Amino acid sequence: MTGRDPHPDGAELNFREKMSYSDYLRLDKVLDAQSPLSDAHDEPLFIIQHQTSELWMKLAIHEIRAACRAVRADELQPAFKMLTRVARIFEQLNSAWDVLRTMTPSEYTTFRDALGQSSGFQSWQYRAIEFLAGNRNLVMLKPHEHDAGITEKLQAILDQPSLYQEALMLLGRNGFDIPAEAIGTIGSTREESETVLSAWREVYRDPTKYWALYELAEKLIDFEDYFRRWRFNHVTTVERIIGLKRGTGGTAGVSYLRRMLEVELFPELWKVRTVL
């Protein structure tokens, strides 16, 4: 026994002139993208956890954009698949907090100063997900004003209807009276609407008649359910590691994150459960 793997029958072994696994995935760039600013043992954990989260968010943005287009085109079956994938992406993002929580407050303090003013609060991809879904607080553009390219990307999202607005326009195309003011102005956070609540109540009272709309509503709830869990896990992880200290980016830390738990992306879909 040589201790080596047996020869893989039929496997390509010569990649001098062929694309390899590492070539396809650009692993040279991915694996060289970690540049700790201290000698602390736990800083690579902190960096990799946030980098992988950003990669998952990139995929979530891709899927939400596609879901918006599919709903707009009345292609609901593909939209359901995309929204299911988004929910599973946030399930993965939730699991990432479990890894980060293995870092203790003592370990975090060994490199926290190296972070300067950088903070997850400044994640433009997280902001893109909120804007795409429907939480369009324009104040949140300010942390990105220093980067014209990122601001342009976020503004392009704001110039299109949100995912929830697409769902409300779909209700209108299916015979529900959804006035323009109930849909809200493109580019800003809409106000809750009794008209929209009544429409969703009718859908939920007769799922068989409105099955596609009913299924879309549940896919949106699945998405926000996992999104809420991600926010909650964020709060508990931060409190476990830094307590009630202010965040590195200047926010109030845990108290700020707790306020964010109260934000609802699809408010009428949560309230319809009470009025049924």
Give the CATH level 1 class.
Mainly Alpha
Q: What is the distance, rounded to the nearest whole angstrom, between the alpha carbons of the first and last residues?
A: 69 Å
Q: Determine the fraction of residues in helical runs and give it as a percent range.
A: 55-70%
Q: State Rg.
A: 22 Å
Report the CATH architecture.
Up-down Bundle
Low-confidence stretches: none
CATH fold title: Methane Monooxygenase Hydroxylase, Chain G, domain 1
Give the overall form: globular
Question: Beta-strand percentage?
Answer: under 5%
Task: Sum up the structure in keywords.
276 residues; globular; Methane Monooxygenase Hydroxylase, Chain G, domain 1
